[in-house]
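Human: I wish I could look at a protein chain and see how it folds. This is the protein in question:
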Amino acid sequence: MPSLKVNGYEMHYAEAGSGTPVVLVHGSLNDQRYWAPQMEPLGARFRVLAPSLRHYWPERWDGVGETFKIDQHVEDVAAFIGTLGAGKVDLVGHSRGGHIAFRVAERHPGLIRRLVLAEPGGELDESLGGVPGGAGKQAGAFAAAAELLKGGDTEGAMRRFAEHTGGPGAWEKRSAARKAINLDNAHTLLGQIDERRRPYGRTAAEAIGVPTLLVNGAQTQPQFIAIVEALERVMADARRVVIPDAAHGMSSDNPADFNAAVLAFFG
């Protein structure tokens, strides 16, 4: 498995294809393997790289320490792109990885050619219609899942988190392969309790000038639709596509349509 030394951390990644680089950033409880349905189709036209973020598989993290923060992951992804030495990249992020991709584009615009945000996770601040001072559903879901994990109910923790992103029965609907990936990364939930993820704000969204594709599943949860719609209203160069027959995990629920949408955007 290839790796790059990034900010003092050995970041492992999957790679396919050649040419213009496309970097894929996974979300919560996932790792580079989440993007398996994208590697070959996108790799037919691009050099596709899917890193596992700090403390995710293949590392077996115990959830202890102060290095599991959104800002750490943002700077790790930026450094990963810089270490490639290939110039600007097309950056694709899903869920929590979508939030990270958004922040990379906000803070390091010179690294990004085009941006794909697939149901970016998080909350909205007041400037984008969020609840004043509210922690939102996300914090409650993280805390509830983490408490189950601490109590030894790992599968219960996975079920609670899956239902936050996918609704009732979401865990049971997942394939054995997706469940295995989630279980391999279970202890990263402990890091998410205090990951310090700031809500999306109008000023930050308006400042992102690169062409951006916003993607959501037709059957997804309302909190993700609210974020996509808010960003669509204010980002400078944003367009949106809805993936049919898919919920939050659209890139695995309906990979054919997801891949086609991304490739059409890249042109």
In short: The chain is about 45% helix and 20% strand. The longest strand covers residues 9-16.
